[in-house]
What we know:
The chain is of the alpha/beta class. It has four domains: 19-114 and 216-309, P-loop containing nucleotide triphosphate hydrolases (Rossmann fold, 3-Layer(aba) Sandwich); 127-209, no CATH class; 323-409 and 572-689, Rossmann fold (3-Layer(aba) Sandwich); 413-560, PCRA, domain 4 (Orthogonal Bundle).
Amino acid sequence: MTKTYLLKPVPTATFKIDYAANLNPQQLEAVRWIDGPALTLAGAGSGKTRTITYRTAYLIESGIAPGNILLLTFTNKAAREMVSRVETLLGTALPGGMYAGTFHHVGNRLLRRYAPTLGYDPRFSIIDPEDAEDLMDICIGACGLKSKAPRHEGRRFPKAGTLIGVHSYALNTGRALPDCVLEKYPSYQHEIDSITQVLKSYESRKKQLNLMDYDDLLINWLRLLREQSEVADALRQNFRYLMVDEYQDTNTLQGEIIDRLSCGTHGSETANLMVVGDDAQSIYAFRGANYENILRFPERYPNCQVFKLESNYRSSPQICALASASIAQNERQFQKELLAIRPVGELPALVPTPNPRVQAEFVAQRVLELRDEGVALNEMACLYRSHYQSLELQLELTRRGIPFVIRSGLRFFEQAHVKDILAFLRAIYNPHDEIAWKRLLRLLPAIGAQSADKIWQCLQTQGSSAEIVFKSPALTSLLRRPTQARSLGLLQDLFSALARLGLEQCPARHLDLIYDDFYRRYVESHFDNPRERCEDLIQLTVFSRQYPDVGTFLAELSLLGELGGEELQAENPADKEQLVLSTIHRAKGLEWQAVFLLWAAENHFPSVPSLQDPARLEEERRLFYVAVTRAKDWLHLTYPIVNDTRAGASGQMALQRPSRFIEELDEGLYEPWQLYAAETDAVAAQALSFQDPVYLPLEEPA
Length: 702
Ligand code: ATP
Ligand code: MG
């Protein structure tokens, strides 16, 4: 007899998080939307990022495996913060399967697995822009174009950096190289054939050496989706839930990756794609971002749901009013409502200062003042259009002992000593990495470019491991000078020890070895600030302890270089209370209680080249909008009236006006501050203690 067995209804998911209490109705609707493509288009500070963070938690609470979710963000740090926020919300650690990070980061993870289908070894190395330039330089030489003699109309062949830039621009915008050369460097249009030849050689060398530059991580990811239908299907099956933050700054390549991942070959299957962004914050067109991606989203996904978030939770009404009035001057934009919901705060301050030095003094003093009032240093940021605009401030902060972290400029991993020591790791990880080998070989006594080349050739042709090649007769007969022989011996010992460690060990052990046995002495004898550099290297070793093996560490590092060393700094909790210095571009998506915008002077912001082109000028205004909308409570717009540190070629000091982005605003939107120097006593006091107020913000001196 057949037994009947009652199948009970599947229990509905129970949610730990009270979504309705933490989100407004519009955000809640977006969080709960899991039935197809959706676009959340909303102004700054309206909770777009918060929405996708809660949405991730919601998906997981609904029973969706983290491994089926792909979250693409502007920085890896943002991704980590979002994941850790989800973990806090859920009260549990997420299983490691969730893919979250920048396009480059995720591209790297996928290519480690699937690159062999494109003919790569999965142990490819990633080269950062500086290495890419070195390689391009080698290619320019190999094509016989390195001569210093002028070529066309007195101009030399373009530099490696220029070629990298234009090549990358063409790839990321999906446009033909000649068009891009014409747009960016019209004076090089006569060189297009030679440029094409060099770029071909660059591409084939990278392939031959098993290297990928940042663009390759996107291009090869896209190739997987275009050319490898099985892989593409597997990826689509896997990433059923896609979310993209800061979608307005995706470029054509990234746009296509998303489109191909979400609109599968499965026809009727709905793509669970949610993109969020703000067209008014699109600031990367100069690097190929295409904000048509966001504007045309509803055309590409006709059944998409559009969510609008209309309350600004971040900034005081005064800051919101200034930001809205500014962006309203742009013609090309979506009209958006943005209601300030926070209580009344202070008017933004416009602070002209006599010169850049006083500008720095003012900022430093005001920072200390706010800190005394209870605002932590890491709740304050100094933003600027270009990195050089931070130099006086860096000096002033150092002088006053105010800790700060720089999120722009020379990045931790771009420094020579860091790159030197990492070259050893790269060479043992990918023995075909020509750039790494040549870099490390040239560190040795009596080994110059030529000898490095000979050693490199031997390494490639002999096909045995490095420590064997170093004592091979073929090589020792080529390099016979006693110092050269000693250098080879040194290398042989070091590489034998590294080989004994193997690649599966934590990289801190390798770094310790390279540092103790060789590199510390190099630093001491070759740099004028060995102490700081050694300190950096020790920090690097500490940082590397969190990685299980050499490969994971290197992949992670090469992508850190993408956005700066801030992640390394964050590892040291004692230093966490630091003032932030950043270009506006790198401040995207972030917020602080107090923001200082430096050098808000005409000809510095907007930048001079943008003045002739209405589209570029609008992009500069969007940049201004991004800057001011980072502030929650205090916004200071400052500029030096006399630019005495950067007098022009004539040596004349220029009087400066405030930026047009300020002059075009209604004067009631900000409060002008006039600085005045305190009396002699106070000036004397300043010499004794930098903490004493010297310049006081007042409407009128008493
Ligand atoms: P941006 O355009 O600058 O990237 P955004 O739209 O992503 O901004 P968020 O960073 O998500 O905005 O949110 C801005 C601030 O407002 C954050 O501090 C966030 O926690 C807060 N916030 C957003 N929505 C709410 C809400 N419903 N309740 C309370 N706080 C909120
Ligand atoms: Mg955001």
